[in-house]
Amino acid sequence: MSGGDRASGAAGTRSARAAERRARMKRRRRIALSMLLLILGVTAVALLLALLPDGGEEPPPPPRVVARLTIPEGFTVKQIAARLGDLGVFSADEFLAAAAAGDYQVPLLPPEQAGNLEGLLFPKTYDITEGMRPRDLVQRLLDQFALEAAAVDFQRSRELGISPYQALIVASLIEREVVVEEERPLVAAVIYNRLRAGMKLQIDATVQYALPQWKERLTYEDLKVESPYNTYLHPGLPPAPICNPGKPSLEAALAPASVDYLYYVATGEGGRHFFTADYQEFLRAKEAAKK
Questions:
Q1: Range of the domain at 48
Q2: How confident is the model over 41-84, as pLDDT tens digits?
Q3: Which residue, 236, 226, 241, 231, is CA-closest to 176?
Q4: In terms of Cα–Cα distance, which of 119, 171, 173 is closest to 145?
Q5: At residue 221, what are phi and psi to the nearest 5 degrees?
Q6: d(C-alpha 255, C-alpha 70), whole Å
Q7: Cα–Cα 20 to 30 A to 280, which of 20, 99, 218, 264?
């Protein structure tokens, strides 16, 4: 065999060996891919079976909705109970008893108010499902409050000189006093300015809460009703919220406007108020509103 023939033969051998190696690698990759697909398939089946109840049956359908409860911003616990009674799902007394149980886990709630969930039952629309108990609904409302309040910086209350729970009380006052959205931070500012000045808040909504029934117009005798909630008689904030506020009032309670206002009076114009830091100006506005 000539030198050229030997070189050609060696080259052919190397080429054949390389082709064989490539073929072996392809077979190994095919085997590895087949095993991976097999493992993934088994895993997928296992996951599907794990999601099914014992026996591999399909999960039961969701509970049937039997009623829909709408809680407006500013409703009290008693008003929520009355609306539930009207829906006929369970009685107002059953709901009130569940709300007063005192064993719910609510970090914001001080121990002395454990049986008072006023302010913590978040206003929203809820589906009431078949088999739901009053206690289940109370927990649902508390869970919604926790969800909504997570986006509110309650720690800002320390900068305002109050506790997070007291910020909730301020929010409830704002909710009951304000109709026009942009006035929420202004009413918040009046509350904090009066607290810092040592002035009684003298908020009509606290008197309404203390009375047995809501009244269209308060009398001077009403302002004398003996109750820790009556801010005409007692300085500082009431001991607990006076309603269940919505998120805008929660936010306003923690971000009051930077104004020096100490007074406001309803003008009768679409729920608006006149704000001032001057007492005499307040009195003139009050007289003008009567006309």
A1: 1-58
A2: 556 655 655 665 555 566 778 889 899 999 999 999 999 999 99
A3: 241
A4: 119
A5: -65, -35
A6: 28
A7: 218
